[in-house]
Amino acid sequence: MENEKKEKTNKVMILGGDGFCGWPTSLHLSNHGYDVVIVDNLSRRNIDNELEAGSLTPIQPMGVRLRVWKEHTGKQIGFYNSNIAKEYETLLQVIQRERPDVIVHFAEQRSAPYSMKSPRHKRYTVDNNLNATHNVLCAIVESGLDIHLVHLGTMGVYGYGTAGMKIPEGYLDIEVPTETGERIHQQILYPANPGSIYHMTKTQDQLFFYYYNKNDGVRITDLHQGIVWGTNIPETMQDERLINRFDYDGDYGTVLNRFLMQAAVGYPLTVHGTGGQTRAFIHIRDTVRCIQLAIENPPEQGDRVMIFNQMTETHRIRDLAQLVSELTGAPIAYVPDPRNEAAENDLHVKNELFLSKGLNPTTLQDGLLEEVIEIAKRYADRADLSKIPATSTWTKHQQPGIPTLEQPMRA
Ligand code: NAD
Ligand code: USQ
After folding, report:
1. Which of 10, 123, 286, 404 is the most exposed place for a label (fewest CB within 10 A)?
2. Is the dihedral angle over the CA atoms 247, 249, 252, 254 positive or is it negative?
3. Fold for domain 2-247+280-314+349-363?
4. Ligand 2 atom 15: residue of nearest CA
C-alpha cells in the first residue's frame, strides 16, 4: 500500500526549501524515494543580512548543500531561485516543466516579531505571504495539473485560548437555531484569532484555500503547526555541510531553541512577562514525518480542505524555562513582554489525525533536549549575544524584552 502511494506520488516541489523546516523536509523526502525540486528566493538569508544576525549553525550556500547531498546519496535535488510572490510567470513555467504531484508550501515570512517591527515589515509580510499563497493556487489551476498542495499553516490561526474545550482540527461544530425552532448542525472554519501581522497572513491563507478548493476543486492539506524546536534530523547529520539552520536572535529565534542556546552561552533565559503563555510544540523530526504522512494521505478529489493540527505537546513558557534551567543551571530572567498577548492561557489541542496515521511523537522527555543543548554548546562561539534581546514591540507603549539587573532572576 505504502509503495503503491509512493509510485503515484513521485515528484514533490518544495517552496521555501532553503529554510529551517524546508531544508530537512527536502532531504527527508529525497531520502525516502521522492524526486525533489526546491524553489526559494533565499529571502531568509537576505533578512539575516538586514538584521545583521545569522544561524548559530554554519549553514552552507544552496549549491554546496545540493552537491554534498548528491555526493553522499547519489540523489539529485533540483533548485530554482525565484520569488514566488512576485514572479508568477516563472512559477507557472516551473510547475509546467516539473509537473509535480505535490507542492509543499513553506515560502512565507514566518517571524511574528519581524512582522511587527515597522510599517515596512508589516507591509512586506502581507505582500509576500498573501501573494505567495495566491500565486501558488492560481498557478496550480492555470497549469491544469491535479496537484496536491500541502501548506504549512500555524496553530496561531486559532488564537491560544478556548472555553476549556480542545481546539479541533480546523473545523468547529456549530448549531444554528432557525426561526421555526429547528436546530441546524454545521461545521465552519474555526474562528480566526491572529496575534500578529504574520499570524494574520496565515488566517487569510485559509480563505484562499477555502475558495480555490470550492471553486476549482484544488486538493489542499493545511497543516496548523505549533512551534518547531530542535535542529537536525538524521539526513542533515550525515555531513556538517548539510546542517540545518538554528535561529536564536530576538526576531527569528523561537522560544525553546532560544532557551537552549541561552543556557549554552550563559545568558539568562528570557521569559516574557509571567511566562504563563501556553503554546504547542513539535520537534523538527516530527515536522518532516508529518509532511510525509500528509503527502501519503491526500484528500480525494471533491474533499474539502483537509486540516491537521501538527503539534505533539503543549507547555507553559515558564515551565519550559524551569526545565532548561534544571538541566543546565541557567538563571531565568522575567523580562517585559514585548508582545500584545494574554499573560496566562490554557491550551488544549486535538491532534488525532496524525496519531491515527502512525505518528509516534518525539517528546521533550526523550532526552532530545540534551542533544540540542549539545548543538548549542558546540557552536556557542558563533553566537552574537547582542542579537538575543527581543526588541520588536507590538505597540508603541511596550518595552523590549531585555533582561536588566533589576529583573527577578531564579537560578
Ligand atoms: P524559514 O524562514 O526558515 O523558511 C522559509 C523559506 O521560504 C526561506 O528559505 C525563504 O527564503 C523562503 N521564502 C520566503 N518567501 C519566499 C518567496 N516569496 N519566494 C520564494 N521563497 C520564499 O521558515 P521556517 O521556520 O522553515 O517555516 C516554514 C513555514 O512553516 C512557514 O510558512 C511558517 O509559517 C511555518 N511554520 C513554522 C514554524 C516554526 O516554528 N519554524 C512553526 C509553525 C509554522
Ligand atoms: N517568548 C518568551 N521568551 C522568548 C521568546 C518568546 O517568553 O525569548 C514567548 C513569546 O512571548 C510567546 C511564546 O514564547 O508567548 C512563543 O513565541 P515564539 O517566538 O517561540 O513563537 P511564535 O512567535 O508564536 O512563532 C513561532 C514561529 C511561527 C509559527 C508559530 C507557531 O516563528 O512561524 O507560526 O511559532 S504557534 O506559536 O503555534 O502559532
Report:
1. 404
2. positive
3. Rossmann fold (3.40.50)
4. 277
Tell me the C-alpha distance between 133 and 150, whole Å. Answer: 11
Label each residue of 149-193 as H, E or C.
Answer: EEEEEEHHHHCCCCCCCCECCCEEEEEEECCCCCEEEEEEECCCC
Tell me how far apart the alpha carbons of residues 403 and 411 are, in angstroms, rounded to a whole number: 14
What is Dmax (Cα atoms) for the chain? 71
Q: Is 270 in the pocket of ligand 2 (CB under 6 A)?
A: yes
- H or E stretch at 372: helix 368-378
Cα-based distances in Å from 406 to 159, 187, 402: 32, 50, 11
pTM (two decimals):
0.96
Whole-Å CA distances, 67 to 20, 63, 72, 350: 19, 6, 9, 41
Amino acid of residue 171: Y
Find out whether the beta carbon of 21 lies less than 6 Å from any atom of ligand 1.
Answer: yes
CA 293 to chain centre: 16
Interval between CA 109 and ligand 1 midpoint (Å): 6
Which set of grid coordinates corresponds to residue 95? 510547475
The domain segmentation of the chain, as residue ranges, is: 2-247+280-314+349-363
The helix-helix angle for 368-378 and 317-328 (nearest 10°) equals 70
Closest Cα to residue 325, out of 249, 410, 406, 248? Answer: 410
Q: Whose CA is nearest to atom 33 of ligand 2?
A: 110
Assess whether the C-beta atom of 157 lies below 6 angstroms from ligand 2.
Answer: no
Q: What is the pLDDT of residues 176-211, one digit of tens each?
A: 999 999 999 999 999 999 999 999 999 999 999 999
Neighbours of 70 (CB within 10 A): 13
